[in-house]
Write a structure and sequence with these properties.
The chain has one domain. The protein contains four helices and no strands. It has 71 residues and is mostly helical. The protein has helices at 2-25, 31-36, 41-49, 56-62.
Length: 71
Protein backbone atom coordinates (compact mmCIF):
# COMPACT_ATOMS: atom_id res chain seq x y z
CA UNK A 1 0.00 0.00 0.00
CA UNK A 2 2.84 2.38 0.79
CA UNK A 3 4.34 1.84 -2.67
CA UNK A 4 1.10 2.94 -4.31
CA UNK A 5 1.04 6.08 -2.19
CA UNK A 6 4.57 6.94 -3.20
CA UNK A 7 3.79 6.41 -6.88
CA UNK A 8 0.71 8.60 -6.78
CA UNK A 9 2.60 11.29 -4.87
CA UNK A 10 5.37 11.29 -7.46
CA UNK A 11 2.80 11.64 -10.28
CA UNK A 12 1.25 14.63 -8.52
CA UNK A 13 4.69 16.17 -8.05
CA UNK A 14 5.49 15.53 -11.71
CA UNK A 15 2.19 17.11 -12.80
CA UNK A 16 2.93 20.30 -10.88
CA UNK A 17 6.48 20.26 -12.13
CA UNK A 18 5.41 20.00 -15.79
CA UNK A 19 3.03 22.94 -15.43
CA UNK A 20 5.57 25.11 -13.63
CA UNK A 21 8.25 24.29 -16.21
CA UNK A 22 5.86 25.14 -19.03
CA UNK A 23 5.09 28.50 -17.43
CA UNK A 24 8.76 29.21 -16.85
CA UNK A 25 9.64 28.49 -20.47
CA UNK A 26 6.51 29.96 -22.08
CA UNK A 27 5.34 32.68 -19.64
CA UNK A 28 2.53 33.80 -21.94
CA UNK A 29 0.58 30.55 -21.54
CA UNK A 30 -3.00 30.89 -20.39
CA UNK A 31 -2.95 29.76 -16.76
CA UNK A 32 -6.57 28.58 -16.84
CA UNK A 33 -5.96 26.40 -19.86
CA UNK A 34 -2.76 25.11 -18.28
CA UNK A 35 -4.69 24.22 -15.12
CA UNK A 36 -7.22 22.28 -17.20
CA UNK A 37 -4.44 20.04 -18.48
CA UNK A 38 -4.29 18.48 -14.98
CA UNK A 39 -0.54 18.26 -15.43
CA UNK A 40 -0.83 15.64 -18.18
CA UNK A 41 2.38 16.11 -20.20
CA UNK A 42 0.63 15.27 -23.49
CA UNK A 43 -2.06 17.88 -22.89
CA UNK A 44 0.52 20.46 -21.81
CA UNK A 45 2.51 19.72 -24.99
CA UNK A 46 -0.65 20.17 -27.08
CA UNK A 47 -1.32 23.53 -25.42
CA UNK A 48 2.27 24.69 -25.91
CA UNK A 49 2.24 23.39 -29.49
CA UNK A 50 -0.29 26.07 -30.40
CA UNK A 51 2.28 28.74 -29.49
CA UNK A 52 5.42 27.29 -31.05
CA UNK A 53 6.56 25.49 -34.17
CA UNK A 54 8.36 22.83 -32.14
CA UNK A 55 7.19 19.23 -32.58
CA UNK A 56 5.44 17.48 -29.69
CA UNK A 57 8.48 15.30 -28.96
CA UNK A 58 10.70 18.36 -28.61
CA UNK A 59 8.23 20.07 -26.27
CA UNK A 60 8.06 16.95 -24.10
CA UNK A 61 11.86 16.81 -24.03
CA UNK A 62 12.11 20.46 -23.00
CA UNK A 63 9.58 19.82 -20.24
CA UNK A 64 11.74 16.94 -19.01
CA UNK A 65 9.26 14.22 -19.85
CA UNK A 66 10.32 11.36 -22.09
CA UNK A 67 7.99 10.29 -24.87
CA UNK A 68 6.30 7.05 -23.69
CA UNK A 69 6.14 5.78 -27.30
CA UNK A 70 9.94 5.92 -27.53
CA UNK A 71 10.68 4.46 -24.11
Amino acid sequence: MDGIDRASRSRVALAGDVRSRALAIWPGLDRRKLTRTCGDPERVARLVGRRTALPREAILGILGVGDPAIE
